[in-house]
Amino acid sequence: MHKGIRNWGPPLLLISPTIIILGIFVYGLIGVNLSVAMTDRHSLADDSSFVGLQNFVTLLTQDRFLHSLLNLAVFTVVFMAGTMVFGFLWAWMLDKGVTAEGGFRSIYLFPMAVSFVASGVVWRWLLNSATGDRASGLNRLLESMGLGFLQNDWWNTPVWGMAAIAMPAVWQLSGYVMALFLSGFRGIPEELREAARMDGASEWKLYRYVIFPQLSPVALSALVIVAHMSLKVFDLIVSITGSIYQTEVPATYMWVALTYNDYATAATIATILLVLVCVFIVPYLISIARAGKRSR
């Protein structure tokens, strides 16, 4: 026992500050948030009584919150599909060999260095809904190209306008997904590809049975990262449209609730968002742990 304590003592002492900080400022605050979500504190008043899960029931049956969830679902689907498709295509092009690969990578990785707030301000102008002679941004570009019939209201369209708001997010994160897929492509030994070709595998079969299975861990990681980022989206939407009902998602609804000192509602929304993120993160962590055990 003394030997075990001696072996575990120094490492535990070394990481104890991190454990304490995480315990207080992460898990402790999560506990405080959950406790507020179970009260009826809907104002600045300190006195509040315990109401259990009543706030959760109220939110999940509220048209406004269900509308925000629908907006989030549309945004998430378009965001995930766009980043995965474009990220894979660009990585595939780089793997196949393109001229000026360094410049190509820099161009598509540059948007990652721009904050969502900065890009949101630019895309607010690009997605201006004015048409005809008053058009600007993308509508103006379409008009000048003789494609005026493609002009639309962009994010002013109810619900499906969220797909337009997902465009800036796709533009900004596709380069990151490209980098992930490119690392996966470059990690596949060339000997494996040559062996498949020598066995008579066509290019499609090479990708179907050799390359795609090797890329599945990278694709899963990219999906989880992009999914959890989309669930927490806030700054991009506020920069483009502000906190309006039409483009409201749970994160912006939570901000509106906080500005009106509705702490119980804001805490309830935060808890629901945490659960949604866990739906994506926890299975991924479990699969990683199982893969690590199998590789030992």
Describe this structure in words.
The protein is mostly helical and 296 residues long. It has a single domain (62-295), classed as MetI-like fold, CATH 1.10.3720. Helix content is 74%, strand content 0%. It has 12 helices and no strands. It has helices at residues 2-37, 54-60, 63-96, 101-109, 116-126, 137-144, 161-186, 190-198, 203-231, 235-240, 250-259, 263-295. Helix 1 packs antiparallel against helix 12 (263-295), helix 7 (161-186) packs across helix 9 and helix 9 (203-231) runs antiparallel to helix 12 (263-295). The radius of gyration is 24 Å and the shape is flat.
- Biggest sheet statistics: none
The third-level CATH topology is MetI-like fold
- The chain-level mean pLDDT equals 85
Q: Considering DSSP H and I runs of 4 or more, what fraction of the residues is helical?
A: over 70%
Q: Could you state the order of secondary-structure elements as H and E?
A: HHHHHHHHHHHH
Low-confidence stretches: none
User: How far apart are the first and last residues' alpha carbons, in Å?
Assistant: 27 Å
How many whole angstroms does the radius of gyration measure?
24 Å
Number of domains: 1
Q: What CATH architecture would you give?
A: Orthogonal Bundle
Strand pairing plus helix content: what structural class? mainly alpha
Strand content: under 5%
Could you name the CATH homologous superfamily? MetI-like
DSSP strand count:
0
CATH C-level category? Mainly Alpha
**In DSSP terms, counting alpha (H) and pi (I) runs of 4 or more, how many helices?**
12
Shape: flat
